[in-house]
Design goal:
By secondary structure, this protein is mainly beta. It is about 5% helix and about 30% strand. The protein contains 1 helix and 8 strands, in the order E-E-E-E-E-H-E-E-E. The protein has a 4-stranded mixed β-sheet. A 4-stranded mixed β-sheet has the order 3-8-7-5, with no helix packed on it. The longest helix is centred in the middle third of the chain and has 7 residues, at about 95-105. Bound molecules: copper (II) ion. Copper (II) ion binds next to loops.
Length: about 150
């Protein structure tokens, strides 16, 4: 007896899912980029001062600098180090010490910056909030050799 296998055809039922959703009902929020026109408080100019040994003279270059309140002075350790930046507290205008103390990293004493022994080390001092006036400073290791400078804040 022969067994006839019958192939049953498969009925493929297509289930049509008709669900169109409206894509991204965007609420049109007008993003207004509010740019404060000319905000000087964000950060002022940057000034560079080198600390170096030139011939037999230890010096800041430039030794005298005029900046605006809010500017940043970046000291560069070039040669003849160790150098540092120490402000004469009595040379600073009233209200000037606190912003500097807040800005100077790793002070050895108030208004006395750390000694730089690494070549090309940089030390940034922000004069944000510093009142106008003269800020005289010196290099602790080389004060006797006349290494000093002055920053005038306008
Ligand atoms: Cu020095």
């Amino acid at each position: 007896m022969r067994v006839t296998s019958m192939v049953a055809g498969l009925a493929v039922i297509l289930a049509a899912c008709g669900g169109e959703k409206k894509a991204e009902d965007q609420s049109t929020t007008t993003a207004t980029p509010e740019q404060p026109a000319a905000a000087p408080a964000a950060g002022g100019a940057t000034h560079d001062v080198k600390m170096l040994l030139e011939g037999s003279t230890y010096k800041y270059d430039p030794a005298e600098l005029t900046i605006k309140s809010g500017d940043v002075v970046v000291f560069h350790n070039v040669s003849g180090f160790p150098h540092n930046v120490s402000f004469w507290a009595d040379s600073i205008p009233a209200g000037g010490a606190e912003p500097l103390k807040a800005s100077m990293a790793d002070q050895m004493a108030p208004l006395e910056g750390p000694l730089f022994t690494e070549p090309d080390a940089v030390y940034k001092i922000s004069f944000a909030g510093a009142p106008a006036g003269e800020y005289k400073y010196y290099c602790l290791p080389h004060l006797a050799l006349g290494m000093k400078g002055k920053i005038t804040v306008q």
